[in-house]
Write a structure and sequence with these properties.
The complex is a heterodimer of chains A (about 180) and B (about 325).
Chain A (H helix, E strand, L loop, with lengths): L12 H4 L2 H23 L28 E3 L14 H5 L5 E7 L6 H4 L3 E9 L8 H5 L5 E3 L14 E2 L1 H8 L13
Antiparallel strand pairs in A: 1-4, 2-3, 3-5
Chain B lengths: L1 H36 L15 H11 L10 H18 L17 H9 L2 H11 L3 H32 L4 H10 L8 H14 L11 H4 L9 H26 L14 H26 L7 H29 L4
Classes of the chains: A alpha+beta (about 180), B mainly alpha (about 325).
Chain lengths: ~180, ~325
């Protein structure tokens, strides 16, 4: 009862000898063949067919909200924005972040009196990091950001632990409204 | 004596150098063309445009450990690749690839081609059998059934050529086509049948049931590795070259150039060779082009096509050509 007999369409003679459809298929594939060939030889076709990127030479242009490796940023005067509040360390799901906070003993200038702490050491274990971006979300000083760096290749395991210098180098300068040195 | 040595040298240059090198080039072409057809780029790193990729592949094959699995029939397992490769290399000897440049100018040229090329199936069957694996065995069995079925259509579809030319000698067939017309024009149906049969004979898609990756892993050479696999692979590509050479010789005027008389001397030979290579190149491209266009036939469909369509059609073409020859061109 449950069996349903499908009525097969009766093929016309021209359909049964295949050759017509074979030629149609050959036309479709040769279009792509010459498409890629012309794309590779000339620029004017604007890469309509050859869409493959040749990886090490050509790379993706990531969007600004791309979630790559986390990094620390400095302000325009190259002063670190991190105040070692350790919220990122607390919020980090895989516990990749470790911070050793330190206090300014004797503030060198008036500016430094406005803040209490700075990170003496700041380490992110990139073998643990899951690129979730919670650290960036949690940071009250907007000091930590996920940058576009996504290809981390090191020969030694300990190199995967990014230290403070590496993090500041990756983050670079970021000018925005948060100015803890002035506005406290 | 010198003649004999020259012949041996000639044969060595063709079978030992020219054919493997063209097969290597063909592997590169196959990978590049298939990539382009699928909007990819293919191997383009080793050498200019990846041309040295086959050399790298070959080095890899040579340096791989030559594993003989414990469960195989050792003697047969070891000779099977050679049994496939050697007939593939022999067949090319009768093909006139340039003016007066066949290794063996035999009067039974085409018959020799069919006789030797069907020996190649032994290597495949023995390889499949010796591997002691179900996938390989299926591949071998399919290969033998397929080869036998399509051998018929292949042989019958060339008979109209002999009916018209009245010769089995490939040089004579080329000479006839130079004097009259390319045989593809009067014998287009026979040409199509022959072409389709060669695809089945060389185990190329859409008729690659002996390999059938989706069903049989890799078919008859599933259990083979390193250079043994490379020999099967090489045999397949040399068979392709021979098949296209045969199509060109039988239906497309061989090494001749239409409306152009080859000059005497060395330049004539070179030109004729170039013309032959160009024509062959087109058919080799067609092999690749078809492979990356058509899906594989189901095994029963393959047999249906061979026995119920190709065989009667080729017989019909023979009757037609014989009838036309007997009644219209009698005497």
């Amino acid at each position: 009862m449950g069996v349903k007999t499908v009525k097969r369409p009766r093929l016309r003679f021209t359909e049964r000898i295949y050759l017509g459809t074979v030629v149609k298929g050959l036309r479709a594939t040769i279009r792509h063949f010459f498409g890629v060939l012309i794309d590779r030889m000339f620029r004017w076709n604007n890469k309509k067919f050859a869409i493959t990127m040749e990886y090490p030479e050509e790379r993706w242009d990531f969007k600004d909200n791309f979630r790559g490796a986390p990094a620390l940023v400095v302000d325009e005067q190259h002063r670190g924005k991190c105040v070692a509040c350790q919220i990122c360390e607390f919020v980090c799901p895989p516990k990749a972040i470790t911070i050793w906070p330190a206090e300014f003993e004797e503030a060198a200038s008036d500016l430094e009196k406005k803040i209490e702490k700075y990170p003496a050491r700041f380490e992110i274990d990139m073998l643990r990091c899951i690129y979730c971006g919670y650290c960036e979300e949690a940071c009250p000083e907007e000091a930590i950001f996920l940058v576009k760096e996504a290809e981390l290749v090191y020969a030694r395991k300990q190199d995967f632990v990014h230290d403070k210098e590496k993090l500041y180098e990756m983050g670079g300068v970021r000018a925005d409204r948060i100015r803890k040195w002035q506005n406290k | 004596m010198v003649d004999l040595l020259l012949k041996v040298l000639h044969a060595f240059l063709i079978a030992g150098l020219a054919l493997p090198l063209s097969a290597a080039g063909l592997v590169w072409a196959e990978r590049r063309v298939s990539a382009f057809i699928q909007d990819r780029l293919g191997p383009n790193r080793v050498g200019p445009s990846g041309l040295l990729q086959p050399i790298a592949d070959l080095l890899k094959f040579i340096f791989k450990e030559d594993v003989v699995p414990g469960h195989v029939n050792k003697v047969l397992y070891i000779i099977a690749p050679a049994l496939t490769l050697i007939p593939a290399m022999i067949v090319f000897c009768v093909i006139p690839y340039a003016r007066g440049m066949a290794i063996a100018n035999l009067n039974v040229g085409v018959l020799l081609v069919f006789a030797i090329s069907s020996l190649g199936v032994y290597g495949i069957v023995i390889g499949g059998w010796a591997s002691n694996s179900k996938f390989s065995l299926f591949g071998g069995v399919r290969a033998s059934a397929q080869m036998i079925s399509y051998e018929l259509a292949l042989g019958l579809s060339v008979i109209p050529v002999f009916l018209i030319v009245g010769e089995l000698n490939l040089e004579e067939i080329v000479a006839w086509q130079k004097a009259n017309v390319w045989l593809v024009f009067p014998l287009f149906p026979a040409f199509v049948l022959f072409l389709v049969s060669t695809y089945a004979e060389t185990n190329r898609l859409p008729f690659d049931c002996p390999e059938a990756e989706t069903e049989l892993v890799a078919g008859y050479h599933t259990e083979f590795g390193s250079m043994k696999f490379a020999m099967f692979f090489l045999a397949e590509y040399i068979n392709m070259i021979t098949a296209s050479a045969l199509v060109v010789t039988l239906f497309f005027g061989g090494y001749t150039i239409p409306f152009f008389d080859l000059p005497e001397g060395i330049w004539g030979t070179v030109l004729s060779g170039a013309s032959f290579v160009a024509k062959c190149g087109f058919f080799l491209f067609l092999f690749i082009w078809v492979r990356w266009t058509l899906p594989r036939f189901r095994y029963d469909q393959l047999m249906d096509l061979g026995w119920k369509a190709m065989l009667p059609l080729s017989l019909g073409v023979i009757v037609l050509v014989a009838g036309v020859k007997a009644f219209l061109f009698a005497g």
